[in-house]
Structures
1.
Amino acid sequence: MTDTVLWYTTRGAGAVSLVLLSAVVVLGVLSSLRFQSESWPRFLTTGLHRNVALMTVVFLALHIITAVVDPFTHLGWLPAVIPFSSYYRTLWLGLGTVALDLLLAIVVTSLLREYIGPIAWRAIHWLAYGSWPIAVIHGFGTGTDAWSAWLLALTAACVVAVAIAVGYRIRTGSPDPLGSARIAFRSAANRREDR
Amino acid sequence: MACAQCLATGENYVLREDTSAPGGNRTPDLDVRTVLLYPLSYEGVWRDQESLPRVTPLSPTLPPERGQGVWFSAFSQGSHRVDQAASVRVETMENTPNEAARIKARDAAFRMLNRLTAGVAFAAVAGVGLLGAVSAQTIPGVTSSSTTSSATTSSGVQSSSTSVSSSSSSGVAVSGGS
């Protein structure tokens, strides 16, 4: 396998990973909104969210492996795990490592959700809102094609999709049907403790 | 008759002699009850057991004395503990047209999930190849050592051996793969 094939694969897998990661974020937001229709039950959103997230990890692994074994950069495996430990484009590559670590934390805690409980899982899952923009910045900073028209269009489409989903999520607020009851209970419990 | 706890706390918590079930609710603390629980009333109401709906066991092999069924009622938890082996009628969801339609819709959704997942995976693999090829043709600022481009030929005719022409405005020819 020649160096250039590895390089092209790294770039292609990186772009695909960004698209998949954006799709995961959008599907996650749709899940939290409890989106459903007659032909689209709610579990379809969560199932697709889970499957695409696992798929993202696979393509991210391809992106990282091809980058590490590429003899041109001599990255080594350490910078793939430990942020900002690379001599090569330390900041931008480190941001990619941060995004990867956050994503791994999200995936692992999701797989172990039954053991860690919903509160810890939810708290860690919120890191997804940090992982995605860091990955976008990593692509802009270190990507060879960052300012190519095709990658700019691809990144812009991802940013617009995620911005619309997150904006709608913020505007609609919590769709939890028991949300008000939970708040009332907590306030009553606090009042009782104060007595 | 008031229970001992009620006498001690002063709560109006009356037990009925005929049922031994509390005449109030089980969470008399209003502050907690109103926000935590829907007010559960377990006031005892004694009814003729024969008038209550019975749950018939499905299995005909159950012994007769255990197959008489139990009474599902909201006023006595004790009844739920009686004869649990013969207590439940298990109906499969296919028994009703509505449930059958829901199962059909669920299976269709599962098939759609599998198809979508496979489609996304296929598109992603294809995307790696496609975007890799696109990136190979749009490498900025890299010149090819083996390319004879129209910029270097004196005749101005583009060579047929040129691999890929750069799309950048600099007009530099690049290699599509070496």
Note: The longest helix of chain A spans residues 3-32.
2.
Amino acid sequence: MLEFADEAQAYEEFVTRYSDGLPVVLPTEPRVRAMLAGTRESPDEEIGHVAPAGNVLTVRDVAVNAVMAGAEPRQLRVILAALEILLDERFNLNGVQSTTHCATPLVIVSGPLAAEAGIVAGGNVLGNGNRGNLAVGRTLRLVMTNVGGGRPRETDMAAQGTPAKISFCVAERLDAGVWPSLAQRQGGSPEETSVTIMAADGPITVSDHRSATPERLLRNIASTFAHMGSLNAALPTQAALLMAPQHARIVFNAGWSVPDIQRLIFENARNPVWRLREGGEWDPALSPQFVKRYGDPDDGRTLVPVLDAPERLIVAVTGGDTGGFSAVVTSWPASLPLHRFIEADGSYSFPRAEREGALV
Amino acid sequence: MTFLVHDPRGGTVAVAPPLARRPGSLAGLTLGVLDNGKEQADVILGRAADLLAREGVTPVFARKPSFSRVAPREVLEQLKACDIVITGLGG
């Protein structure tokens, strides 16, 4: 416990030293105890070490930072699942925390637990006014800075960062009348909820109110994925498409499946070698090694995809019913996106399910 | 009357290990050189190793396969055998 002369002094110290710059709720013992009601795990349960500082993270520590972020106990299960992913070696949190890139966790919650946890998927989903979404993303960030020591300008060496580093969390629309949910496509039942995380750039909005066919719409989206400023242009790996319901219906009503979307983006989100040579992150020593997988690196016409394979595109439907605006999210390629399931009956508040996602 | 709140940094705070004692002389020592994998890191560190070799060290070069990931165990094992190690960022 930290001791202060009074609440005002504690508040000043917390906002200055332990916050993202915004006001925080002070983690007093009654508040932390109330937060811990959101899990059946013991407060002393150790989840792991948080890079780069390497401090041990317990369930209680998570609850402390959740209180500070303004979270409610009902979000704690999702937060714990998300943190298990962040601490998975394959996620490379050490790199995400310390890179000069803007990388930050994009959290996608898919399944019925999202609504129970107050994590929403409706209008302005990536913006303000969504307490649960903001609190989940913000808790992860506060754990990363406070327990992981990823402090801006000290160990977090981001040149500019992104507003998504305050919080970046969405739920998936389960009522859009389109495909099976992301959780179901990951192998879960309709009753299960999955948490998927990708180390991400900030989102780019794709506006399209003219396309009436999947081909026209998805080529527009593909061109956004293929922008030359993304690391994905030079390092084909993974990306996420947060698809607006209006866009999803155009594709779904034409009889297309999610694998059809993934294939079209894989085939169209590409840059020719001549363009990659002229700009962006093309590395004359390394890039040809990657390009060999897709064609002759010495031939300027060889097309290089931003995705390593079609299934490396994470597709989730989210946002309000009206408006042809989807979000393209490119990634930090040195981190692997992962997902975890939270069991339907809530019996695993700490989801050590056998099925865990190597890939999304 | 004091105001108590939980420490958000976690209960078990990792403490940075103390810095190793500086060697009195470089003569006869093995120098590990860890290249982080970025462009030009080899140029900068190679030059530093050349200068230190004049002081009598024997350089051993190691390279991280990816500058975005921690050094693999075999690289760390290789460096453990060295008396001193230098590293630096390319760019």
Note: The longest helix of chain B spans residues 41-53.
3.
Amino acid sequence: MTTAAAVAGKARGGQSVARLARRHGWTVGVYVLLLVLALYWRTIPAKWGSFDVQSLAIDALPLAFAAMAQSVAIISGGIDLSVGSLISLVNVVAAKYMVHMSLREALGFAALLLVGSAAAGAFTGTLIVLSRVPDIVVTLAMLFVWAGVALQVLQIPGGGAPLSYLQLGTGHWWSQWVPSGLVILLLGFALLWLPMRWSRPGLALYSVGSNRNAAYLSGVSVARTRIFAYALGGLFAGLAGLALTSTAGIGDPNAGQYYTLNSVAAAVLGGVSLVGGVGGLIGPIAAAFVVTLVKTMLILKGVDQNWAQVIQGTLIIVVVMIGGLAIRQRRRT
Amino acid sequence: MSAASPQVAPPAARFRAAQRLLAENPAIALSFIFVALFVLTDIVNRAQSGKPFLTPTQLSTTFLYAAPLALLAAGQTLVMLTGGVDLSVATTATAGAFITSGTAHGQGTGTALLLALGLGFGIGLVNGIGVAIFRVNPLIMTLGLSSVTLGALTIYSQKRFVALVPNLVNTFGSGRFFKYVPYDLLVWAPIAALIILGLRYSGFGRMVYAVGDNPLACRLAGVRVWQVLLLVYALCGAFSALAGILLVGFNDAADLGIAAPFLLPSVAAVVIGGTSILGGSGGYGGTILGALILTVLDSLLTILNASAAVKQMLYGAIILALAWLYARTSTGD
């Protein structure tokens, strides 16, 4: 259906360039922004090398996954405020039990946690669909439920993970300049999102987010798609929690708070419109790196940590404001 | 509304009439719940420590504790009536607390209070600008502004200043007169009356409901929706700052976490009170009962030695259950 039309569009030559620009312009823009920031970043410290790239990857990895989780929810027409708490939960459960495991056991346990986090997302989605309560309220409530469970599992930061597992997030593959975390991130994107995005469930996701009524009238199972969206979001949140365990090496029940708002900011900055049905996952990944890079550069320049938080928060608000203006302009034309 | 008919109505019709009465006046059911919870806490307390809970002192303490929450929930009610939500009430209250204690020594009590209320109004105004003019999702805007405020407050708290909580604030925050009547009721009651009467009898009140119900129709009818929203968020900020003043009076010192435990309960109180999350229906009367119920619930949980984790999970579950219940009853009609 849409795939055929897309193929036909590309074959038409000149006309499709404008459409391509409109559809992918924002994503390209975010990558250009990342490049510009990275070039400026190189000039700040006296010595800049692969270590800095690795540090950035370590820092940004959980946020990138969180942004992907949030993007899936927003594209489907909703929002998921419980992403941060779910990340905390997976983080503390992983850290609490992995500390005495071998790498093989840890990986198996990680797979189990992913199933669990996807199920948690599906649970949230089912609640939203069954109760007809707006997703903001349900995910806000689930935020506190998961946060409470995380506190119950681990009251204070603690736990750990086998060294080889920590290497997964903090090491490098083949060369000093290729952080293994980045590889896992791209693998996750390629294996979990790309094949699905152009298949039936993926298209259903976009149609439900774009116009729920039209999707329903076209025969798309809206309820199933929405539950699937939140389940997929839960899966990515689980990956974020595992990534956090790997990069931080410890479990912290409050660690996920940072990702609640910043995942939304990264999604919006990455071109996912809050109205739904617009955007992809590749933009938010770059946006997550941009957000993390801004924070890193502020700290490198010696800005006080609290001032950095104020600046970052203000930037997020400005970004979302601009996004809101863009929606208004689009609606007017 | 079953008109009083001279004939004796059959039992089935009378039961349905009673059901409808309860559904349209949640205050009745909520009052029952409040009394029942109080009695339950009494029973549990007697079982645990042999002391009764159903005493005038405890009743007055409940009202004393509930006042700041009720003020936070007052602003939250106004915002939710317009279809939004304000997640920055806690940080605005903290800002009010800090300004009061920080400037009271240098500028005197009156000026400090005015500054605190002004700051709250200003923060709310910024929220309103983001939501009304830039059409940012209220959740994102208020969440972002709350993190900016918290960062700014952290910086402010690290500066050296003479922290003084004026005696007047202390009295109103924690004192009682005639042995049982808390002073903060003198602040809460007039504001409650103002809100309830204002919402019901003033033009602005009607516009708040209208904007929450159908903003597009309002705009087409000539209502300046952005002005209504701006004022609503600004009032919410002012009420939050007032709650912060009461809290610092109770606590005798300003603390970055002074209002954090009240954020979720403020949303919960509004939801419990029957105000629809989508806006357009509800009122402050129910919220008052919601705040009282939550305060008694908190006492009950404390007596039961429930951990912070369990409390959080429970709050999330309560919000969910009640929002579901109200969604069911409203769509059922």
Note: The mean pLDDT of chain A is 86.
